[in-house]
Amino acid sequence: MPKKKMDAFDSAISENGIYAAEGGVITEISIEAGDSITTGTELLTMYTQNVTLTVSLEENDAKNVTKDSVVKVTLLPYPDLIFDGEVSEISDARYDNSSGSVYYDITVSIDGNQEEFYQGMTGKVTFITKETKEVLYVSNRAIIRDGTKSYVKMKDENGNVVEKEVVTGFSDGANAEIKEGLNEGDIVLIESRVSDE
User: Fold this and answer.
1) Using alpha carbons only, what angle is made at residue 61 by residues 117 and 96, rounded to the nearest 5 degrees?
2) Could you give the 3-state DSSP secondary structure of residue 32?
3) Domain residues for 92?
4) Using one digit for the tens of pLDDT, what is the confidence trace for 3-57?
5) Model pTM score
6) Tens digit of pLDDT for each residue in 112-134?
């Protein structure tokens, strides 16, 4: 083997390991342990660009997303890890004849360590369009709505269940911010139904 080719080989192989010239994501491994290889054998496929996810949003949801939007991403294989992301592209509008809706494709680049990412993984993208820090909140199930007013049930000093009016704020779908009416440490009641079966 000519010295030039041997030097190129040595720059990529060290201690029986293959070293990439730059970082990337391995999307396919073409060989297995014990396989024989020859010149030109494809060992693996690697993308050197950032990992991206693309989601389609209806026009009403997409209007709240910009390139400055805060994005959080979870991937199905790693449900306990939350990755930061950024909006890298927003497509032109497209009309879906079957639903009669306008959609935008939003491409999100995932930041951070991408060693365990593979092509085709399923993920969940959350666009944070409003964020409130250090708030008092209760479960949405504890809130009773009556027209424009909201209440929670509590026990008074005698142990009687009473309704207390509250002013709610931002909700993430599971919990609601309490702007007025409660103090930290107050205990509210959630009614549940028990079957007699």
Assistant:
1) 90
2) coil
3) 52-128
4) 666 666 666 565 667 666 666 667 778 888 888 877 777 877 776 666 788 888 8
5) 0.47
6) 776 677 777 888 888 887 776 78
Rounded CA separation 91/71 (Å): 17
pLDDT > 60? residue 1:
no
Domain count for the chain: 3
Residues in the chain: 197
Q: Residues 8, 56: one domain?
A: no
Q: Tokens 């293959």 — which residue?
A: 18
- Could you tell me whether strands 143-146 and 149-155 are parallel, antiparallel, or unpaired per DSSP bridges? antiparallel
What token pair was written down for 36?
A: 């024989």
On whether the CB atoms of residues 170 and 182 are closer than 8 A, the answer is: no
Say which amino acid occupies 9.
F
Rounded Cα–Cα distance for residues 40 and 127 (Å): 44
Is residue 168 domain-shared with residue 195, that is, in the same domain?
yes
Angle (CA) 163 146 64, round 5°: 115
Closest to 187 in 3D by CA, of 156, 150, 144, 146: 156
